[in-house]
Design brief:
heterodimer; A: 1248 residues; alpha+beta; seven-stranded mixed beta sheet; six-stranded antiparallel beta sheet; 33% helix; elongated; B: 143 residues; Beta-Lactamase; five-stranded antiparallel beta sheet; globular; TRAPPC2L (chain B); Trafficking protein particle complex subunit 2-like protein (chain B); Sedlin (chain B)
Chain lengths: 1248, 143
């Protein structure tokens, strides 16, 4: 059966669609051909797949072929059986007949003969040529068709349909399509069943010696091909998948040594998309196929089906894994394959898959699939790139390949090719060897920027030189020492060439310039590296057939161009996929090449991306590799901002990544730029380098309005000291963000040491709130830098991507405005008026130091400070303690006799500077004051006790305390102090004796909280009164001293009598008032109130003198006029009620007796009423008629209205023209009347 | 042979990376581990795609290349453990067991009260222990 392979291949190539046979019985084909072929491809066909499930196939391709056609006729039966898939899937029998007899006799037997073949799926199309107008013909045709149906239709299946040539019925075509599809489906099912049965039978023999894979393959592929023709691509693909599995199993059975293939010209180019690359008959190997070609063939078939199915993603997926697995297979057979065929094959395979799929992918798939698609493309590019680099390395371009982590990772772990014999140096290659030598020597060893010393990463898994020489067949063991010598020169591979000393170079060039070069390359001598390269290049030229690849390897420029193309391809695709890191890492490689070619702009952009990725995720080792390159680009591009920032980032990398010397170099660059003339001064973020924090511990607390000094810890990551021209920090109020940020500055130049520095910053008064540190800004030279980075107070934090999450701790708390100090008067009761008194002020700091504070005192009117005296100050708490003790021991002690820390202070211009010791404790300030009141105290009548008005004794002191660190805090208060006379006196006539002697009682009420002691008292009487027995007006002397306890009273009796003589001497200017003189002493505590005047020695018995005026009236002995208040007519008064007030005035004496009165017979009256209580209607003053005769009387009526209820004093009638002494009143004293509230008036009620 | 083991934090920041190649080429392993994070990210972000359900910590083979393999393991706290091996035929069970030991060592190391979470592991004991685990690792030694 294997012999049929060629034929099978040919058949497959020719037949690509299903065949429908047409049995043209009545020569109708030319007339119906057009109509029938219009139906193709079949719009919609319901077929069954391999598992007998219905599948709808659209646009099913098919072809009508007449049975008389040579394609169907000339086939041997065995061929038909083998290649059944190409046989017709349906047979259409075209008949036409208008005569029933003719049908019965001729046509029917013929048809029976045609349809008797059971294996055929057939149906009959009866074509009616009858014109619709021709009734007879139509009738006949109908008859014949009816007969046809009877004969050929079965109950299960209708096999006839009728086509009217004149006027086709639309339903016919539906019927026709249905019948074709039905036939195809049935045939397909039957054939699939047949093939499966055959395949099953054959599979059972798989482990037997008779097993032949080729036969199995033909059957399996026939089935697959049939499915493909029927557009059942899914089933077809499955067949190929099974075939592949079966093949791999067959190949991997041990024992049989098979040829692998891959040795023919052109095999280096992958045939992944070319199933017809080689005829199968050429790759037959015994009972199977050569693996190299056959697996590619199978894959190509699969890819073709996948493309048909519209699954480019799956193509790439399968492609990539196929390439990887096939590459492994190639590695197994590497010793038989041409040199580096594996690498070359992978390159071409990757490129083929990429080019075939990138155009087909429409991007309409789900985003996930799209990303996967791009990722696979990236993988393919990347794989291709690695293999390409490996080839380039072998032929000597390795010196130009960037020794980056990316390249090192891909190349240094990839084993060298393992040919059985390493290629030898071709003849006449001396020129090439020289050229390679030159290339190696001229290769510009890329110095790292900033003179960074770093061992370069390897690009080779092991030394190429050793590997190549080891694999040379002729190298004897004896040459090992020589080899080792070379290795020493060579160092670690290619990098060692940098270490060639000039002498070595000279000697070598001398060696190679000699004419007998060929002889020097004896077989025994190990190859030099340049020779290895030349040999590899030569071998590759034999392997590679792809002109593009050859060209790419032909020169360094071409190599770099291809390298760039592949790298960009990989990077771009990775960027579109999930694998961003892969893409960015490759961007770094692009950047390196751009940099090499002087395209610094592009290089910088790419490097920035790479750096951002590494920095963002904290891969500092990798960052340290790339960042210097970026910095160099920026330096060349004169991008000062970028360069500075890169330098700062370099400095902020972990300590171990760079040497101290290198770090110093970075710092020097920063400082150099900072002090250079920059066109545009750039802001610089040094968050990663300079970090700051508040001091550990509780935050600094300031009172509202106070300035302060905030210590801040600044961590410098610079390796050396660095001078900052200025430094400032912002404070952010955490409670109130509206205020924005406050900046506090330290204008001094600071030198930051590496590591921890503590810097003190002055804080101006801030608004209340809790403040956190915001941004640190400062200047280095012309450079403004800022840092946002907080450190926890520990060592500098390098993982800057984490640090923004740290909670910020308040460093400063400005408290809400509160009372910081309180000043109050120390006295609780009144002080003595007109005497020098100690006024105590308690200055009480409330958790706030009063250091350096200044108290200004401004006394109000009627009060003055005696500046000649010193001011006492003592501790308030002590005072209180002393007091308690004093009370305990029942001994009254003056506090300031035992001052613990007293100080004498002086007042200057009304200001007192408080001593330092008093800054934190409550103190009492005692200063002497003198309240002045010029008025003389007056005694009051005992009947109407008239208290001294409190306001009269009130004096005020305005205090202003300036305190705080800068006397910025001000406390102002006005204190009222009450002064009073030591006592007040009330008098009354205690008794009137018959002899005219009056006993005058003077009651002395103490007004102070101090013990008064009266030493003496005498009364200077006014005119008209004299002392009885003409004494000096003193009471009994043994009466004194009289002690009056605080708030108590004492009385003194004076005996006086009326001096009748005095009336006669009216004209003399006499004393109008009597004066009571009191000599007294006072003993009191100054903290309680009144006490001995300051000027006196404390505790001394010096006496004070006090005068009280007493008004004495001569008694009314014979009044001329009587005034009587007439009771009201009604019982009670009401508010708002008008009433008439009446007084009756009666003359008690004849007017002659009173010489002072005038001759008129009338009297002047005046009504005196409190306007708040009474409303008077009419005149309040006037003359009333009253005759001069004794007994004459008159009534004065005033209408008035009470305004308030209660017991009120009624209006009083006065007679201003009369002396009070001549008037007798009834009732004699003040009296009260009762006024009721007004009656309720319903008219004011508001209805509910 | 295990070329390198690494611990990567939940923000994809390296916490620990130890090379066992003997050569001074840790940087390329940094690169390999860093790039492998792409695969982990992809698996974690596209649970539909990933073959292995994320109920399991072990992520399996991340990175089949021709010359080395990267295996991954993801802890509940999104800490990633990676192993780069040049051994191309390693049993899954061996790797799983290796990761379990590695994870246990990590848990012990970060339980140290002086360790700052999210920072690099500088514990020498951890390094010694990991080296021990790596040395003990040979295909087939773990059940």
């Amino acid at each position: 059966m294997a012999n049929y392979l060629a034929q099978f291949q040919a058949i497959k190539n020719t037949s690509d669609r299903l065949v429908v046979a047409v049995e043209d019985v009545s020569d109708l084909w030319p007339s119906v051909k057009e109509g029938l072929e219009k139906r193709l491809p079949l719009k919609k066909a319901s077929l069954n797949n391999k598992t007998r499930n219905p599948v709808y196939v659209e646009n099913l391709q098919a072809e009508f072929i007449l049975t008389t056609d040579s394609r169907l006729r000339s086939r041997f039966p065995q061929e038909q059986y083998l290649f059944w898939f190409r046989e017709p899937y349906a047979t259409i029998v075209l008949v036409s007949c208008e005569d029933l007899d003719e049908f019965k006799t001729i046509l029917k037997p013929r048809l029976k003969l045609i349809v008797q073949n059971e294996e055929r799926e057939w149906f009959i199309v009866f074509v009616s040529k009858a014109h619709p107008n021709n009734d007879q013909a139509t009738k006949n045709a109908k008859k014949v068709y009816a007969r046809l149906e009877v004969d050929f239709n079965t109950r299960k299946r209708e096999r006839c349909c009728k086509l009217d040539l004149n006027g086709v019925d639309a339903s016919f075509w539906e019927d026709f399509d249905f019948k074709i599809v039905e036939s195809i489906r049935n045939t397909l099912d039957r054939r699939a069943q047949f093939y499966e049965e055959e395949i099953r039978k054959m599979s059972e023999q798989r482990l037997m010696p008779v097993w032949n894979f080729c036969n199995f393959f033909i059957l399996k592929e026939s089935l697959a091909f049939m499915f493909e023709m029927a557009h059942l691509h899914e089933d077809s693909l499955r067949e190929y998948d099974e075939l592949e599995l079966c093949y791999i199993e067959t190949v991997s059975t041990p024992g049989k040594q098979r040829d692998f293939g891959g040795l023919e010209h052109g095999d280096d180019q992958a045939a992944l998309l070319k199933p017809g690359f080689k005829p199968l008959s050429q790759i037959v190997q015994d009972d199977s196929f050569r693996e190299f070609e056959f697996r590619q063939y199978l894959f190509a078939r699969q890819v073709k089906l996948l493309f048909r199915l519209g699954r480019p993603l799956e193509v790439v997926m399968r492609g990539y894994s196929f390439i990887i697995s096939f590459s492994k297979t190639l590695a197994l057979h590497e010793n038989t394959l041409p040199f580096c065929l594996r690498e070359v094959w992978v390159i071409s395979a990757c490129l083929a898959i990429i080019s075939s799929t990138s155009s087909t992918y429409d991007g309409l798939a789900a985003p996930d699939n799209e990303k996967e698609f791009y990722r696979l493309h990236g993988d393919l590019y990347s794989l291709c790139r690695i293999k390409f680099m490996r080839l380039a390395y072998l032929i000597g371009y390795g010196v130009e390949i960037e020794k980056s982590p990316v390249n090192s990772a891909s190349l240094s772990m990839l084993p060298w090719p393992k040919p059985s014999i390493w290629p030898a140096v071709p003849e006449d290659a001396s020129a090439k060897v020289l050229a390679k030598e030159k290339l190696i020597l001229q290769a510009n060893p890329r110095m790292k920027h900033f003179n960074i010393q770093r061992k370069q990463l390897p690009l080779e898994p092991s030394s190429l030189l050793r590997e190549a020489n080891r694999r040379r067949a002729s190298l004897s063991v004896g040459n090992l020492s020589e080899l080792i010598d070379y290795r020493q020169i060579d160092g670690s591979g290619i990098d060692g060439h940098q270490k060639f000393s000039p002498s070595t170079t000279n000697s070598m060039s001398r060696t190679y310039s000699g004419p007998n070069l060929e002889s020097s390359l004896s077989l025994d001598r190990p190859m030099r590296i340049s020779e290895v390269h030349v040999a590899a290049e030569h071998a590759l030229e034999n392997t590679v057939t792809d002109p593009d690849l050859l060209k790419s390897l032909s020169s360094l420029e071409e190599f770099e161009q291809k390298y760039m193309e592949l790298t960009k391809g990989a990077a771009d695709n990775y960027h579109h996929s999930w694998w961003k890191r892969h893409g960015v890492a490759l961007d770094g490689e692009i950047a390196a090449l751009c940099f090499k070619h002087g395209n610094y702009d592009l290089a910088a952009k790419s490097y920035e991306k790479v750096c951002a990725l590494y920095a963002g995720e904290g891969w500092q080792d990798l960052l340290a590799e790339v960042l210097p390159n970026l910095a160099e680009c920026q330096k060349i591009l004169n991008d000062q901002a970028g360069y500075l920032s890169s330098c700062v980032r370099l400095l902020s990398l972990e300590d171990g990544l760079f040497l101290a010397k290198e770090r110093q170099a970075f710092q020097l660059e920063v400082v150099r730029l900072a002090h250079s003339e920059m066109k545009h001064p750039v802001p610089l973020d040094v968050s990663s380098l300079i970090t700051f924090s508040g001091n550990p511990g509780p935050p600094l607390q300031l009172c509202d309005g106070d300035p302060g000094t905030l210590p801040v810890t600044v961590w410098s990551g610079f390796p050396d000291d660095i001078t900052l021209e200025s430094l400032s920090l912002t404070l952010t109020n955490t409670l109130n963000t509206d205020e924005g940020v406050k900046t506090i500055k330290s204008s001094d130049a600071h030198i930051l040491k590496p590591g921890r520095n503590v810097i003190k910053l002055d804080v101006p008064p801030q608004k209340p709130g809790s403040y956190v540190l915001g941004v640190l800004t400062g200047q280095i030279g012309n450079l403004r830098f800022r840092s946002h980075n907080f450190s926890k107070g520990g060592p500098q934090d390098n993982d800057d991507f984490m640090s923004y999450e740290k909670p910020t701790r308040p460093v400063l708390k400005v408290l809400k405005p509160r009372t910081l100090v309180d000043i109050s008067a120390a006295v609780s009761s009144a002080l003595l008026m007109n005497e020098l008194q100690w006024l105590g002020l308690i200055v009480k700091p409330i958790d706030y130091s009063l250091k350096g504070s200044l108290l200004s005192i401004d006394t109000g009117p009627g009060l003055m400070i005696d500046e000649s005296h010193t001011i006492d100050i003592n501790e308030y708490a002590k005072t209180m303690e002393d007091k308690v003790h004093a009370h305990d021991s029942n001994t009254i002690t003056e506090n300031n006799t035992h001052p613990l820390e007293p100080k004498q202070l002086y007042i200057e211009n009304g200001k007192i500077a408080l001593p330092d010791w008093a800054s934190d404790t409550s103190t009492t300030l005692w200063f002497p004051v003198h309240a002045i009141d010029d008025r003389m105290a007056r005694a009051a009548s005992a009947d109407s006790p008239h208290r001294q008005n409190m306001v009269d004794g009130m004096r005020t002191i305005a205090l202003k305390l300036e305190f705080g660190a800068f006397r910025n805090q001000i406390f102002e208060r006005t204190i009222a102090v009450h002064f009073t006379d030591p006592f007040y006196v009330t008098t009354r006539v205690a008794n009137k004796c018959n002899d005219g002697t009056l006993l005058l009682q003077a009651t002395i009420h103490s007004q102070v909280k101090a013990t008064l002691c009266l030493y003496d008292a005498w009364l200077d009487l006014q005119a008209g009164f004299v002392h009885v027995r003409k004494e000096n007006g003193r009471p009994v002397s043994s009466f004194f001293p009289l002690v009056i306890s605080p708030s108590s009273t004492a009385g003194i009796l004076f005996s006086i009598c009326i001096d009748n003589m005095a009336i006669a001497d009216q004209n003399e200017v006499v004393q109008a008032e009597s004066i009571l003189n009191v000599m007294y002493g006072i003993s009191g505590d100054r903290s309680n109130g009144a006490h001995s005047p300051t000027s006196l020695k404390l505790g001394s018995s010096d006496k004070l003198f006090f005068k009280v005026a007493i008004a004495l009236q001569r008694p009314i002995l014979d009044p001329c006029i009587a005034v009587g208040f007439v009771p009201f007519s009604s019982n009670c008064l009401r508010v708002g009620q008008l009433i008439n007030m009446k007084w009756r005035v009666e003359r008690l004496k004849d007017l002659e007796a009173s010489p002072s009165s005038s001759c008129k017979d009338e009297v002047l009256y005046e009504v005196d009423a409190n306007p708040e209580i009474w409303m008077i209607a009419g005149r309040t003053m006037g003359h009333a008629l009253l005759s001069n005769a004794r007994g004459s009387r008159t009534e004065i009526t005033v209408t008035c209205m009470p305004l308030v209820s209660g017991h009120v004093r009624p209006p009083q009638l006065g007679l201003p023209a009369m002396d009070d002494a001549n008037i007798s009143c009834n009732p004699p004293g003040p009296h009260l009347v009762c006024v009721l509230p007004p009656t309720l008036s319903s008219s004011y009620c508001i209805p509910a | 042979m295990i070329a390198c083991v690494a611990v990567v934090g939940h923000q994809n920041n390296p916490l620990y990376l130890q090379s066992f190649t003997g050569a001074d080429d840790a940087l390329k392993l940094h690169h390999i581990v860093h790039c492998s994070l792409d695969v982990i990210d992809e698996r974690v972000n596209n649970p539909k795609r990933s073959v292995i359900t994320l109920n399991e910590s072990y992520l399996g083979l991340l990175y089949p290349t021709e010359s080395y393999k990267v295996y991954g393991y993801l802890s509940n706290t999104k800490v990633k453990f990676l192993v780069v091996t040049t051994d191309l035929d390693v049993k899954d069970t061996d790797i799983r067991s290796f990761f379990r030991r590695f994870h246990a060592a990590y848990v012990d190391a970060v339980s140290n009260p002086f360790h700052v979470p999210g920072k690099k592991i500088i514990s020498r004991i951890f390094a010694v222990r990991v080296s021990g685990i790596v040395k003990a690792f040979a295909p087939g030694t773990y059940g």
